[in-house]
Amino acid sequence: MSVTANPDLTSHGRPLAAPAPWMVATLTAAATNAAAIPAGPVYQLTLTAVAFVAGLLGQVEPRGGTLNAWQLLSFTAVVAGTVATAQALGTGRAPALVAIVVASLTAIVFLAMSATGGAASGDVKLAPLVAAAAATIDTITAGLWVGSTVLIMGGATVLSTVRRDNPETPRPLAAFMAAGIPIAVAVTFWFRPELVALLA
To answer: Using CA atoms, how far apart are residues 139 and 83, in angstroms rounded to an integer?
Structure first.
């Protein structure tokens, strides 16, 4: 579902300034990089790149913009590189196939959400790519990412209600998707040592 935001929200009479997109992307990437430490430098690099681009693109629609073809192609290239790297590492889990299946299922879910007004068009475009990147690690990681996104979105909904934001102003979910990446990666690599040993 979409959550709400009020662009005119003020604090002590002054508008609340949103952080710059590059700052959000950098923080998301830094958190993901730290979370992926147990998996080694290769996964650190690929997942950090995914998190940075997702964090950057996740700020487009909340700021009133529209994702263009070049932005989506760039993210697709980053995710494809992540999938190819996982495939080359040969962990025996067919990461490319798993990524395609998970991305397809995610696309169906978000298309259904979009049809009911629960997701913006950018959410439908970004969600399968993020899910595919998460699935190259493990299908459980993809599930953790979905769960993290839902929890963050729920927290934002509660905060929005407390602040009495304008319920007619939707906020796309892409920003919450990006925030869910480091959480899913952290749970995967810091609490599942058997998977880390497999990827080593």
So the answer is: 13
Q: Which residues make Cβ contacts (< 8 Å) with residue 144, sequence separation at least 6?
A: 134, 183, 184, 187, 188
End-to-end, the C-alpha distance of the chain in Å comes to: 38
Dihedral sign of CA atoms 124, 125, 127, 128 in order? positive
Closest CA to 143 of 197, 113, 102: 102
Q: What global pTM score does this model have?
A: 0.78
Neighbouring-strand partners of residue 14: 11
- The residues, ordered by sequence, that sit 6+ positions from 108 with a Cβ below 8 Å of its Cβ are none
Tell me the domain boundaries of the chain: 20-199
d(CA 145, CA 184): 5
Give the residues across from 4 on adjacent strands: 170
- Per residue in 104-133, pLDDT (tens digit) is 998 998 888 888 777 778 888 899 999 999
